[in-house]
Amino acid sequence: MKLTTHHSPLTTDLSVNIAGIKMKNPVMCGSGTFAFGEEYAEFFDLKEMGAIVTKTITLKPRKGNPPPRIKETYSGMLNCIGLQNPGTEAFIRDKMPVLRKPGIPIIVSIGGETEQEYTDITRELKGVRGVSGIELNISCPNLHPHLSPLPSRERKEKERLRMFAQDEKAAAGVVRRVRRITRLPLIVKLSPNVTDIKIIARAVERAGADAVSLINTPLGMAINLEKRTPCLSNTTGGLSGPAIKPIALRMVREVYNTVRIPIIGMGGIMDARDALEFMVCGAKAVAVGTANFVNPRAIPEIIDGIRKYMVENRIKKIGLLVGSLKAK
Ligand SMILES: Cc1cc2nc3c(=O)[nH]c(=O)nc-3n(C[C@H](O)[C@H](O)[C@H](O)COP(=O)(O)O)c2cc1C
Question: Which residues sit opposite 71 in a β-bridge?
């Protein structure tokens, strides 16, 4: 008889539930960095992802801003894509059938210039098979050509030009209206371009958000010194990549200490360690953005790395890590 000492392999459970969206692992893509998934399917099996978040769609098609709209910067990039997308009708007709194929949760990111636009898109999405949740992008820095100064004369114009995520009442207002017309899980994407993100997080939680995702891109600029012009067509753009990770971690922690709803953390996640840092700070799930452009296999590699870390550290459930930061 052969004597063997048998150690049962440690089971690792990576699954998370974000407001009813059941994900087999906590890793999704950041909106706008993965298009509608098609291009990445040749690099890995999209089934491996926790969820897919679409490029933000608007009610009508948008061409976005003219080029140049991407500029590499130290440890990151600036973009002013301007929400280029095919519009809601074409999205449902042409993109949803492709998105449904991997059988993973699909979170549709929606954006608009008015509250009405958000509710119109939400209504159109009603009953569309395979939509697992809605992410309200109230924080796109490139939607409006001139964020400030606001023309003070016409109130209507003012409404239109505002970034919802920069104003507590505006943020809560749009969430409340969308909340009234859908039962789908509502994730609200917050902007770092604010004085105090806690105030906005609390306001959207009260208005009925099921989760928050953060951060969208902080606004930045790059200059062509020879020409003395901005490098981007829109003058300013959103900064992403490792350059913003410390800001994002700080904001995730602040929001974690403020709200009860789950947080999806993002901003400069390049590898598994980055993702784990966000989870320790309080993110229940994470999104990978700019890293997809650098390494199209970033997402599956991050998932593997998280699993390896859990095995090495004998962590059975990923949830045990969430918010486990030892800090005063
Ligand atoms: C080229 C590009 C396009 C983006 N488009 C969107 C978008 O359509 N909607 C949105 O909510 N966020 C958009 N984002 C923001 C990302 O989803 C993410 O919040 C941000 O880039 C921070 O994560 P990262 O540093 O991992 O890229 C975009 C980012 C980039 C770089």
Answer: 78
